[in-house]
Specification:
- It is built from 10 helices and 12 strands.
- With 299 residues, it is α/β, with parallel strands linked by helices.
- Strand 5 and strand 6 form a beta hairpin.
- The chain starts with a strand and ends with a strand.
């Protein structure tokens, strides 16, 4: 079985283990925590110089001693068009800090549903939306006790899904979300604004606010809907705004998974951080928004 190489190390984040570990420690030390074990996270996936600090506001809440045995990692496909969700052909995922084992048993269960396809290794390695979370996952479960084992990984590349397909995957994944041994991590950046992204909504008549403030208003409207756990309202929001949230389908799958889960009424979604790569002021500017959220289950 193949190892998926850390193909973006050395460019999107450091390939030096010591430097990378220190950088992640710095991000985590600076982030706030809510003192409750999460059931799921929504975290950004840009290069660490852009979104590493924002992602820490999700990962800071992970408790390595909470009994998490596997991590479901859902990310969008940036390079290959898919109408379904895809699974890796690799047995391990490499990071500069060490390797994470793919949970082949869970993969067998998912493949048996008939709703998943396999992605080639070159497609897997070209995609950054999953890889950018691997060092954080490795770091967050770094415990000194020799008997402690890191959780296995269930990487899922989410294609361009219909609402019906998102609901189907939500039904498949809900029993896993209900299991306290599993943590779900959803990979997504928020608004990509600018000519290079083909997306520049801007009400120039609103002289009271700058472009970046309008972007934030739009992002936060979507974030409030996600916090409401309303999958239908989120789909309507995307249709109305066209907001270029690259992980909109993984988020849609998560919302459907929450809807189908036995603990829906006990879960709450809380956004913990929002940032922009730069403050867009006019037509020649561009920016990407980064947000982190935590799904808690109340007692």
């Amino acid at each position: 079985m193949t190892t998926r190489e850390a193909s973006h190390a050395g460019s999107w984040y450091s390939s030096d283990p010591s430097r990378l570990s220190r950088e992640l420690d710095g991000f985590l030390d600076a982030a706030g925590t809510h003192g409750s074990t999460p059931r799921a996270l929504i975290v950004p996936h840009a290069g660490y110089s852009y979104s590493g600090a924002a992602a820490a506001w999700g990962y800071k809440n992970v408790d390595a001693r909470a009994g998490i045995r596997r991590v479901f990692l859902l990310g969008p496909s940036h390079h290959v068009f898919l109408r379904r969700c895809a699974l890796s052909k690799c047995a391990t995922y490499a990071t500069p800090l060490g390797n994470l084992a793919v949970d082949t048993g869970i993969y067998d269960e998912l493949r048996a549903t008939g709703h998943f396809v396999d992605m080639d290794v070159d497609v897997d390695e070209a995609e950054h939306s999953l890889e950018l979370h691997l060092p954080y996952i490795f770091k967050c479960f770094e415990v000194e006790e020799p008997e402690h084992q890191r959780p296995t990984l269930v990487p899922i590349m989410v294609g361009s899904l219909s609402q019906e397909a998102e609901a189907t995957y939500g039904t498949i994944l809900a029993p896993y979300l209900d299991d306290d041994a599993n943590l779900f991590i959803v990979s997504s950046d928020f608004c990509h604004w600018g000519e290079r992204f083909g997306y520049r909504p801007w009400d120039e008549q609103r002289t009271d606010v700058r472009v970046h403030q309008q972007i934030e208003e739009m992002d936060r409207a979507g974030m409030r809907i996600i916090e409401s756990k309303d999958a239908d309202a989120f789909a309507a929001y995307l249709k109305k705004t066209g907001n270029t949230i690259c992980g909109r389908h993984p988020i849609g799958v998560l919302l459907q998974t929450l809807r189908k889960s036995g603990g829906f009424d006990k879960t709450r979604v809380e956004f913990t951080r929002y940032e922009q790569s730069s403050a867009a002021m006019g037509w020649n500017d561009s920016s990407v928004s980064y947000a982190s959220a935590v799904v808690f289950r109340d007692a």
